[in-house]
Amino acid sequence: MSNVKAALEIIAAKAPGFKAEVALVLGSGLGGVVDAVSDAIKISYTDLPGFPKPTVVGHGGQLVLGRIGGVSVAVMQGRAHYYEHGRSDLMSEPLETLRELGADRLILTNAAGSLISEASPGNLMLITDHISLFGPNPLIGYHGDDRFVGMDVPYDPEIGSGLKNTAAELGIDLFEGTYCWCTGPSFETPAEIRALKVLGADAVGMSTVPENILARRLGFRVAAVSNITNLAAGMSPTALSHEQTLEMAKEGSANLIKILLRYFSSDA
């Protein structure tokens, strides 16, 4: 039995008849979004074949099924990073499982460093494009024509517009920009940040892009929001650390929860 089929059977036993409309993947320090899920059914990743076992503080390691604002959601609290296992495709089976649950929209979130002064720690950035030049494509080794995923419009403009309008209604700044995926786990050097600026990056982080590619192969409409937790290396006298990331994620997380609640309420 495949991991996806086995995971679906476990989910069916714990949440009979559950169907998801939207899937979410939560980044570092964004576990507070789970508190907004009503009628929540929580399943540990350790009980779900093919799901990642997070090794990073701030990633909860559970699948949460329920509703936000009247919309049926499947929320992944925690993800697999390339730097944890040396594989960029480890989110494939979880995403396949979420797709089989019925979700056709995917909202990815992450903690990221800002390369632009306009987006400071505590701000949110809607990802409109990305740069993926520094790690292996997650579809390497896949077979079939569906591996040739078109990336002309990698992030769904309709979902993005909905999130942007919702943020404006709430008086929350939601910047738009290009996200660069770097493999981590070390943070970037000031020289690397200067190079990424030349390439057109507005924010940098260690996730999201492989998930976008995998999800688009599966037919998901994808949107993504970065929670800006720090200015990138060389832009601030403060030394970067994962502890700082988690601390600064709290402010952005509160605003992201407000946006998601209003967005899903208007979508119901």
Give a short synopsis of this structure.
This protein has 268 residues and is an alpha/beta fold. The protein has helices spanning 3-14, 82-85, 92-100, 157-170, 190-199, 209-217, 242-267; strands spanning 22-26, 38-44, 62-68, 71-77, 105-114, 124-131, 174-181, 203-205, 221-231. Helix 4 links the parallel strand 6 and strand 7 (174-181).
Count of the separate structural domains: 1
The total of beta strands comes to 9
Helix-strand pattern? HEEEEHHEEHEHEHEH
- What CATH calls the topology is Rossmann fold
InterPro entries: Nucleoside_phosphorylase_d, Nucleoside_phosphorylase_sf, PUNP, Purine_phosphorylase
Keywords: Glycosyltransferase, Transferase
GO cellular component, one term: cytoplasm
EC number: 2.4.2.1
Task: List the main descriptive attributes of the protein structure presented here.
25% strand, glycosyltransferase, five-stranded mixed barrel, Rossmann fold, Nucleoside_phosphorylase_d, globular, single chain
Question: Could you describe the 3D structure shown?
Answer:
Belongs to the PNP/MTAP phosphorylase family. Phosphate binds at residues 28, 59, 79-81, 111, 207. InterPro entries: Nucleoside_phosphorylase_d (IPR000845), Nucleoside_phosphorylase_sf (IPR035994), PUNP (IPR011269), Purine_phosphorylase (IPR011268). Its EC number is 2.4.2.1. Keywords: Glycosyltransferase, Transferase. The chain starts with a helix and ends with a helix. It is built from 7 helices and 9 strands. It has a 5-stranded mixed β-barrel with strand order 5-8-7-6-9. The chain has helices at residues 3-14, 82-85, 92-100, 157-170, 190-199, 209-217, 242-267; strands at 22-26, 38-44, 62-68, 71-77, 105-114, 124-131, 174-181, 203-205, 221-231. The chain has one domain (3-267): Nucleoside phosphorylase domain (Rossmann fold), CATH 3.40.50. It is α/β, with parallel strands linked by helices and 268 residues long. The longest helix has 26 residues, at 242-267.
